[in-house]
Structures are given as structure tokens and as C-alpha cells.
């Protein structure tokens, strides 16, 4: 198998998604980090700022700046944790949820267009193959040097 097609597909797919996301975010003076955090917060409402950093691997300063922009746009709120007053819990506002729905809709439209001429059967086969390949990541033993 010529694996360059997989690499090419992955890069082009991600770049297409990034361009789609960026065009929507720019309309609100937001950047890609803000968009990633919105998606993450939408999927994990109520996570603390620190937990978001652990999972996304963004540094604390980047998260704080991004959350400040999201709050100024009225897309997210930070509330003090009920039992640990040093922690802040993050969630999207209704306005943020609406904007996230717009982002997800645009992402779905791009993906649907990419698979437009691929039969449902072939899409299912591809899904199964990619899940098996994805599971193989756990078997890799790559050393960091």
C-alpha cells in the first residue's frame, strides 16, 4: 500500500477543517485556540480551567487569554467552584452554544461534501478500517528522544 495518500488526506482534511473554522472565527475576532476551546467546553461543560489545560495541552496563559475573549464575546462563563474557591468552572452560554452549533454545521457541510460521491457501504467500510487503524496507535512503542 502507498501510505502517502493517507498522509496527504490527513493533512489536506485537517487544513480544510482549519480554514473552515478560521473563516467563521474571524467573523467574531476569535482565533483557532478559541474555537478548539469552544468545542472542548461544549463537549465537557463544567470542567475547570486547569482540567481543560491538562486535556488540551494548551498552557495556562493561552487558556486564560482565550477564555477572556470568549467571555467578552459572551460565548463562555467562568464560575467559582462551589467547594474549591480557587478553581473556576467553564461553560458555554446560550449564545456560545448557538455559535458552536454554527461551527459544527459548517464542519458537517464540508465533511458531507467530501464524502458526497462515496456510498454509505463504502463509508461504513472506511469507518471500520479507520477505527482498526486508530486502535493500532496503542500498540506503537515510539520513544521520545
Layout of strands and helices, then pairs:
Elements: H1 4-26, H2 32-43, H3 49-56, H4 60-72, E1 76-80, E2 88-92, H5 94-114, H6 120-136
Antiparallel strand pairs: 1-2
Overall SS class: mainly alpha
Question: What would you call the shape?
Answer: globular
Mean pLDDT across every amino acid position: 91
CATH class: Mainly Alpha
Number of strands: 2
CATH fold-level label: Arc Repressor Mutant, subunit A
End-to-end Cα distance, whole Å, is 29 Å
User: Helix count, per DSSP?
Assistant: 6
Q: Helical percent range?
A: 55-70%
Percent of residues in beta strands: 5-15%
Write up what this structure looks like.
With 145 residues, this protein is mainly alpha-helical. It has a single domain, classed as Arc Repressor Mutant, subunit A, CATH 1.10.10.10. 65% of the residues lie in helices and 7% in strands. It is built from 6 helices and 2 strands, in the order ααααββαα. It has helices at residues 4-26, 32-43, 49-56, 60-72, 94-114, 120-136; strands at residues 76-80, 88-92. Strands 1-2 form a two-stranded antiparallel sheet. Helix 1 packs antiparallel against helix 5. The radius of gyration is 18 Å and the shape is globular. The protein starts with a helix and ends in a 9-residue tail after the last helix.
Amino acid at each position: 500500500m502507498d501510505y502517502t495518500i493517507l498522509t496527504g488526506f490527513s493533512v489536506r482534511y485537517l487544513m480544510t477543517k482549519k480554514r473552515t473554522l478560521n473563516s467563521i472565527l474571524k467573523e467574531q475576532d476569535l482565533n483557532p485556540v478559541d474555537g478548539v476551546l469552544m468545542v472542548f467546553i461544549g463537549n465537557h461543560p463544567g470542567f475547570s480551567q486547569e482540567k481543560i489545560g491538562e486535556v488540551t495541552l494548551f498552557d495556562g496563559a493561552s487558556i486564560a487569554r482565550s477564555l477572556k475573549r470568549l467571555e467578552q464575546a459572551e460565548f463562555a462563563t467562568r464560575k467559582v467552584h462551589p467547594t474549591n474557591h480557587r478553581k473556576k468552572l467553564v461553560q458555554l452560554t446560550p449564545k456560545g452554544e448557538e455559535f458552536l452549533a454554527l461551527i459544527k454545521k459548517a464542519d458537517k457541510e464540508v465533511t458531507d461534501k467530501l464524502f458526497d460521491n462515496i456510498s454509505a457501504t463504502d463509508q461504513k467500510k472506511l469507518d471500520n478500517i479507520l477505527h482498526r487503524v486508530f486502535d493500532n496507535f496503542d500498540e506503537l512503542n515510539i520513544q521520545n528522544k
